[in-house]
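Minutes, project huddle
Topic: does the predicted pose make sense with fe (ii) ion bound?
PN asked that the exact inputs be recorded in the minutes so nobody has to dig through chat later. Recorded below.
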Amino acid sequence: MVSTLTRPVPAALEGSTKKAVVEESVLTPRFYTTDFEKTANLDLSSQDEELQAMLAEMKADYNRHHFVRNPDFAQSWEHIQGEDRQAFIKYLERSCVSEYSGFLLFKELSRRLKAKSPLLAEIFSLMARDEARHAGFLNKSMADFNISLDLAKLTKKRTYTFFPIEWVLYTVYLSEKIGYWRYILIYRHLEQHPEHQFYPIFQMFENWCQDENRHGDIFKALIRSQTKLWNTWQSKLWSRFFLLTVFATHTMTVHERSRFYEMLGLDPTEFDAQVLRETNATALRAFPSAFDVNHPEFFSRLHRCSELNLQIKAIDQSHQPQALKFMRKLPLILGIIGHLVRLFLLKPIDAEALRGSVA
Ligand SMILES: [Fe+2]
Ligand SMILES: [Fe+2]
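Predicted holo structure (tokens), as shared on screen:
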């Protein structure tokens, strides 16, 4: 059965009521719903041992005392002004919405699976616990900049995209793993270059990213429990479709928000490439097929998409009639689609063959 998610927001997540509307675009994090009945009936027997082990790890709750605002936060942040302030607030807002979207999906899955699939229900409930902490912490950081997302209002106002459970497994796995790599790469970079640590939240990322890594491993077990998600020609196409969607979105958003990465002393293009390389290598352990990121066209076409996307944004911000804007944007949109199709058709890496040769 399909349903929208309208669960109440836990007290820990309630922020001030300053902002309930998030600027929408194709690249904004989405809120999802799925077929809960079908999810409850998944046969998980082949991964039971793995899932029991993951449940024990989640119960251990290694980050129980981690999400506490230490004295480093207790100061004024008014010295971060102008373009930098806006870029950082956007980063916090996008991250908060993305974490909160995970919380809502996991919470609803937990509630709906309780009767028929208690193991999954408990795992999802503990994952929702983690995402609530992450979203809550980000929202408190936003309050340091005199802005908060009203998550309760956001829950009611947002529209939910229906994804079949198979798509949810692929996309949430990827978003957890790409999240892990983003957090850990920023953390490691700032360890080497503490002079760029302009706000203390980045110190938290080392333990924080381990939550995302564990969530990704749970989704890996769920994917591997369903043979048709990795043992069919369709699964190879779907894997690459979702990888490409996540990668293209990442490249475009990182370049749209390059100022934030520059504030951290990171080169946005290099950071994006490193995140994609690592996520693609990680995905080879769960997905049947992934990209050959060393192919000379791989990054060049993604960068072309990003340049076209920036041109589209510039047109959107101009003061021209809508019809003229559309006519100017159309060839650019078709250009992006053309590059994505060519990327999709690049010779892939067959992960199952790789697994076979290692074994
Ligand atoms: Fe998270
Ligand atoms: Fe997560």
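Observations noted during the meeting:
- The radius of gyration is 21 Å.
- The chain has 13 helices and four strands.
No decisions taken; revisit at the next huddle.
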